[in-house]
Amino acid sequence: MSHHDLYAIGNALVDSEYEVSDALLLKMGVSKRHMTLIDTPRRAELLEHVSQLQPRQTGGGSAGNTVVALAQLGGKAFYSCKVAHDSLGDFYVKDLQAQGVHTNLTHTRAMAGQTGSCMVLVTPDAERSMCTFLGVSAELDDVALHPQDIVKSKIYYMEGYLAASPTGLAAALKGRKIAQEAGVALALTLSDVSMIQFCKAGLDAMLGEGVDYLFCNQEEAQVWCGTEDLEQVRQTLKKLAKMVCFTRGAQGSEVLTAEQSWHVPAEKVKAIDTNGAGDMFAGAFLYAMTRGYAPNQAATLGNQAAAAVVSQHGNRLSLGQLSAIKAYALPPHK
Q1: Is 105 exposed, middle or buried (0-12, 13-18, 19+ CB in 10 A)?
Q2: Is the pLDDT of residue 199 over 60?
């Protein structure tokens, strides 16, 4: 019997979100819409640019956002990651515990170093540009894995950002092998265009001979496939996974399998901040799939949750918000 609906591995990051102008983003030299890894001197330089702004601080990290969304909807989740013994690490651990997410952090934390953080720069067009300082997350390794929990989970979920870390990638792949041998379904998110451009070998390794669930947005899919032709993109993606979730912003989402495909329209909303939208979709989608809903119903829940998160500032929704969305978007089981 499964103890967890979802077991995920990824970078633990505390998000600090700033509202900035396009002019300031340009002055800072930040690549718009994408994630850029930064070191300590670059982080200090960027912080100087926003020293007069007041950030919003939340627990973050791509897979972290996904497991929290699933847990808030009523699912059971486990998250493997790495934080330091510092104030941000304390904040991150308490945040996961408050959301009901089980984690290795109650057993293993780095004694030295800094917890990873992400500067999320949101421009007036709602686009988010991320500057990520990995801190001790760069040293995530297989010590963070709990094999006994992996084998008792329904789905093992890998964050594509781990392709940038040799030890993180090795840990993700070790967990993948444990999950596969135990018959646990495999899931991967491509995470960001930068990972495809610079770390594709790591993503290829996580894909292996294929996964059960693959998550990506339209830009990531087009860059991966080397074409803007959406029909070619669909045909290529279907060879990578048993089920592909292909999000397209205001155009909604598509779920693709070898035999069938669904296009699920998006909710019409005014986007304020796209940070966390893809993570939210994945968490809601996988929650519904682990509850026996059809793929199009799962995508409807994912669209609704993603629409809610882009309609506000911040990468998370409240338990109350997600409960209301679930009641509205999912029919009750007979």
Answers
A1: buried
A2: yes
